[in-house]
Amino acid sequence: MEQSPLFFGKWGDVPIDGDVRPFSIFNPVRSGAGRKNRKHHFISVTYMEGFADDRGRVQVYRAEAPEAPLPKQPRATGYENYYYSQKLPGGGQENHRFEDLWNPIETVWPETVRALQARRLSPALSFNVQGMQTIMRTRVPATRDRIALMLEAKLRSECKVFEEIGKLPPELERYAGQFDTVPVGVNPHETLLAMEDEFKTFGDLCFRLGFEVLHNKTDIPFLTSDNPVCTYDPREPLLARTPYDHSGDIELIFPLTARMLVRGSSKRQPFGVLTRHRDVTDKHKVRRFNRTIAQFAYRMTVGQDRSSDALICAHARLVPTISTEVRRHNNEIQIVWRHIFGPKPDLSQYIDTPEKASRLEAKMALAASSPVSDGC
Question: What is the pTM of this model?
Answer without folding.
Answer: 0.90
